[in-house]
Specification:
Elements: H1 2-23, H2 25-37, H3 44-58, H4 60-72, H5 74-80, H6 98-101, H7 117-126
């Protein structure tokens, strides 16, 4: 589930980056000018500068998304909660292991272990 958490942060960030590149006016200026005029005006330095501008503008939304997701902490706790040893939790119901702990604070947590959410979150933050 650590990889699921990474996907929960990374997939929207990648989508935001792609949308940012597609919606950027410079992207279409680069495509249209290079097609219209051929390789004459598409020299390496000018293309590199234009590409840098496109990436610079497109990366703002994904970085913001990632920072906010990590600052909220749910994704971080979700990723690390599977490493909490269930045997160290007082009165933790038997039959639940790391698979159940990996769901904290994610969805689909069984009701009889929901009371351990705060303790698992605290221990996950210690890692």
């Amino acid at each position: 589930t650590g990889s699921l958490t990474l996907a929960a942060i990374g997939a929207p960030a990648l989508a935001l980056f792609i949308v940012g590149v597609i919606l950027n006016n410079h992207t279409w200026n680069l495509v249209v000018e290079c097609r219209r005029r051929g390789a004459r005006n598409c020299t390496a330095p000018s293309t590199f500068l234009l590409f840098g501008s496109i990436v610079g503008h497109a990366v703002v939304a994904p970085v913001t998304w990632s920072v906010i997701s990590l600052l909220q902490g749910d994704a971080y706790v979700c990723a690390l909660s599977e490493f909490v040893d269930p045997s160290t939790l007082t009165n933790f119901p038997p039959g639940y292991g790391a698979g159940t702990l990996a769901k904290f604070p994610c969805k689909d947590v069984p009701a009889d272990v929901l009371a351990f959410k705060d303790e698992i979150a605290r221990r996950s933050e210690e890692h």
